Amino acid sequence: MDSTRQVEPSAGAVKVAVGERYAQSALAVEPALCCPVQYDGRFLAALPEEILQKDYGCGDPSRWLREGDSVLDLGSGAGKICFIASQVVGAKGSVIGVDMTPEMLALARKYRGEVAQKVGWSNVEFRRGRIEDLRLDLDRFDAWRAAHPAADAEREADRMRAEEPMIADDAMDAVVSNCVLNLVAPALKPQLFTEVFRVLKRGGRAVISDIVADREVPLELQHDPELWSGCISGALEERAFLRAFEAAGFHGVQIVARQAEPWQVVEGIEFRSLTVAAYKGKQGPCLDEGHSVIYRGPFAHASDDDGHLFERGVRTPVCAKTFALLGREPYQGQFERLEKDGVSARDEAAMCGPSSEPACC
Ligand SMILES: C[S@@+](CC[C@H](N)C(=O)[O-])C[C@H]1O[C@@H](n2cnc3c(N)ncnc32)[C@H](O)[C@@H]1O
Known about the structure:
Number of domains: 2
CATH topology of the largest domain: Rossmann fold
Shape: globular
Bound molecules: S-adenosylmethionine
Radius of gyration: 22 Å
Strand content: 15-25%
CATH class of the largest domain: Alpha Beta
Structural class: alpha/beta
CATH architecture of the largest domain: 3-Layer(aba) Sandwich
């Protein structure tokens, strides 16, 4: 057996397979890449037919956006989710689509003005970059390389990442993506989730639609470039997909949509679309300011991403940070929140940890 097939496919091999496939599918509709999605019809009227045709998504993360949001769409393709998001967030919001394929970007940019005219405002822009490296703007980097053919390009790339990042830290209210994360090489996936976390504001959320598998995809399938670029081979196993958000530091990770019937079954493995929402903001010191919460139920108990256990109906001391988190999405309404619990000597160890330590979260 070919020894390269006993390890995961390299980032280079994935980049070539995905780059070639999506360059072609920007030019001609590729039905094999379409997974039927019901978008909100109110937002489709402003979209040109070509954008609707070249829809290679598998879910609709735009349903979880709000007026005024600043939004980043990862792997924006022909721009459909960006143009829908533009209408949801309104004139006070803004949308950035990032894609690595020049042909896809050309298509999205071609219709930017027309959609803005129909919608009534212009709040969408498209940038070329890799979603696992959101600091580097590839259009600017390539322009620099063309002007400085003999210079150290890697050094300049690092300078750009540090001094002029394409997407800054803590910049976005929401990061969305539709059927793209699976296309990133296995070795780069942890870095990709870290990037999503980095660019979100504290309190921001990621809403990601992607294809997942009901079992780990075997290496043999991972080495098929057609299946890889077809959103099959790079799909994470469902639980591993959720864990990737947890590992990057997200909390409140939640499946908000899950396709009941598989989109495809390959060698007995079911591939289906999942939409996951996850939140940034549990990091930071844990200070006891006398707050408590009571979990309302319906489950006998619940535990959060910091390992706190909340028994139904039981007053539970929490630090100020956890108290604030539990009052917000996605926990809102599930806890009775008590500003001061009236207990004079609190058992700090039973809460989040010693208040002097910024340790718990
Ligand atoms: C399946 S299509 C989805 C396009 C779009 N989100 C939609 O809903 O129609 C995948 C898109 O992701 C882009 N893409 C794949 N891997 C990427 C990466 N590592 N960085 C940036 N874009 C990527 C491709 O160029 C392509 O436009």
